[in-house]
């Protein structure tokens, strides 16, 4: 990899890694494309502060002017939040973006790839992508799954987006050899909901237990797959389940009637949910992200102490 293609770490992140202090990777898509302005910047700063409050260093990841950055300063964070030209980059988009000198916010797949490439081991996000409904007809599956099957990183999330086919996604993760741990729960979280109704095979209850699984992964020296720590949003902060089910059914019906397919499905459904729940789905999403970021910082701390 050339010097210009190698990820550029901030001084704070580099020093933390050299001193074996905890570092948490954060995606930037939620900043550039997931929230309205100016709240997006406030949330980005809040999430970094949550990491710091737990004694870890935040490493928000983005591509700016053809260079991948691991850890952003204030001006760079402002730019990701405010610049309309910032694109949305999955891991397959990284090479063209770097070659073209483009700027982009990183999705789960791109963030996980760049974080692992830089030597980070823990990554916090909201919800993963997965297998889409009507997969047998569309063959639509998130690039997150394939990337996580070959990337050794621990991802703290609130499950997968509830607009997806959750049972099929869990089956796909099993096929790909990606480990799934329920954090304090025997059920896989449902992103906006504390539970998707689907069971998990393994439950952990402390950051130290997660770190022990990470150490065992390394000791086994098997395929470099990720480890998913599925952390449910607190019940008090979840979207009302009955409201969620009703609005999601309406959203899926509207999507079908309008003939929306492919990459247009997910943003349509998420926008529909946010609008028709009067922002309640967004608040549940943010509650989940905050909890995931806090837990990821604690896991990163347990990992460096191991």
From TrEMBL:
Active site residues according to the UniProt entry: 27, 161
Keyword match Repeat: no
Necessary cofactors: Mn(2+)
Enzyme class: lyase
Binding site for substrate: 88, 108, 142-144
Alphabetically ordered keywords of this record: Glycosidase, Hydrolase, Lyase, Manganese, Metal-binding
GO molecular function: hydrolase activity, acting on glycosyl bonds
Catalytic activity: D-ribose 5-phosphate + uracil = psi-UMP + H2O
Coiled coil: none
UniProt EC number: 4.2.1.70
Keyword Metal-binding attached: yes
Subunit-structure text: Homotrimer.
HAMAP family membership: PsiMP_glycosidase
Function comment: Catalyzes the reversible cleavage of pseudouridine 5'-phosphate (PsiMP) to ribose 5-phosphate and uracil. Functions biologically in the cleavage direction, as part of a pseudouridine degradation pathway.
Similarity remark: Belongs to the pseudouridine-5'-phosphate glycosidase family.
Protein name: Pseudouridine-5'-phosphate glycosidase
The species this protein was found in: Streptomyces chryseus
Encoding gene per record: psuG
